[in-house]
Write a structure and sequence with these properties.
five-stranded mixed sheet, alpha+beta, 2 helices, 20% strand
Length: 122
Amino acid sequence: MQIDWRGRREFITLLGSAAAAWPLAARAQQRERIRLIGVLTGGGHVKESDMANVYVEARPKGRSEGSPIEDYVVEDHADHVLDTFKTQREAIEWARKQGHHPHVARVRHLNDKKKADHWRAA
């Protein structure tokens, strides 16, 4: 068996060029990496911005008629205080800016959030 060496130099040059170019071609064909960001939250918590109605109430609660109002609170349906304000107007404006629908008690001592007729839209 005899080997023909006439094109040996061209063959080695071709082989070397292909080997050098292989990593570049492989990198060029890869897709761009997609980065994902995930967030895990506890299932029971409702974000403030997702709540439709909030309730503006005078404090102290259960005060007698004619006693002074100390401040106003904005609460969710479960009586969680979202913020406190000096005036009812400030509380209502804040709730609207946060994307809520503020409600105030029709009668100050009637403030059961489960009874819709105790509240009116502000």
